[in-house]
Amino acid sequence: MKPSKEIRILLADDEPHILQFLEMGLVNEGYTVQTAPDGMSAYSLALDFRPHVAVLDVMMPGMDGFHVCRMLKEAGNAIAVIMLTAKDEIDDRIKGLTLGADDYMVKPFSFDELLARIGARLRNQFPDLLGEVALGPFKVDDRRGEIRYEDRLLELSPTEYELLKYLVLHHGMVQSKAVILDKVWGYDFGGEENIVEVYIRSLRDKLGDKEHQLIRTLRGAGYRVDLP
After folding, report:
1. Alpha-carbon span 38 to 218, nearest angstrom
2. pTM of whole model > 0.85?
3. How far apart are CA 204 and CA 218, in angstroms?
4. CA-CA distances (angstroms) from residue 143 to 121, 127, 130, 139, 146?
5. Contact at 8 Å (CB) between 217 and 223?
6. What domains can be seen in the chain, in order of their start residue?
7. 84: helix, coil or strand?
8. CA distance linking residue 55 with residue 196, whole number of Å
9. Per-residue pLDDT of the chain (228 residues; tens, 9 = 90+)
10. Where are the alpha helices (H) located in the chain, listed in sequence order?
């Protein structure tokens, strides 16, 4: 999927080889990219560059990613922030999200996963930039709140739409029930995890996925959408 309009992405990391690798990959995908080696230059650059998405490393000299995230959000500009960290610590994740971060990734990560997360943030916060997204047999139109499968409009409830959209946009990646509940129902959802099974069953019925080849169940891990 290539951006339909200019989409600006800011990358901030103090490891030059990571910056170069990510910049080359994102430019190849059609994004306009600028990079910064530390937090202060990242914030200064963002004021003029006005990125749609900022990918910030947590541990940077001078001003860390948490500080940059807070300042960018307080500046009032519409921006999606993805935090990068080398530590899989829940305290870091909570701190980042509390300061306004929109997503969180733990190093090392795959470039495809970063692409998927950037795409998800753009669809959620800047849907007019992308329009309709075609992925395999699916077409997701977030402006209309519609999903087509093999050119057939699916009759979906709002929750079914959000669940299927999330699984399709993150195709190829296993999604646990806990993650699905957090992303689709919200972190403050107080119900049971089994609600996910109920909605997955309904989606399979509407997709005609009797053999579970489209929405796969990975026992003990979660669900994954596989596209041709």
Report:
1. 40
2. no
3. 15
4. 14, 7, 10, 12, 8
5. yes
6. 8-127 (3.40.50.2300), 132-225 (1.10.10.10)
7. strand
8. 30
9. 455 458 899 999 999 999 999 999 999 888 899 999 999 999 999 999 999 999 999 989 889 888 999 999 888 778 999 999 876 666 666 665 666 788 888 888 889 889 888 988 887 788 667 667 788 899 988 778 899 999 999 999 999 999 999 999 888 889 999 889 988 887 666 667 789 999 999 999 999 999 999 999 999 899 999 987
10. 16-28, 39-49, 65-74, 90-98, 111-125, 127-130, 158-169, 177-180, 194-207
Q: Give the total residue count for the chain.
A: 228
Q: At what angle do helices 90-98 and 65-74 cross, to 10 degrees?
A: 20
Both tokens assigned to 149 = 């499968």
Side-by-side strand order, sheet with 132-135: 132-135, 138-141, 146-149, 152-153
Residue 187 per-residue DSSP state: T
Q: Which residues pair with 56 in a beta bridge?
A: 12, 83
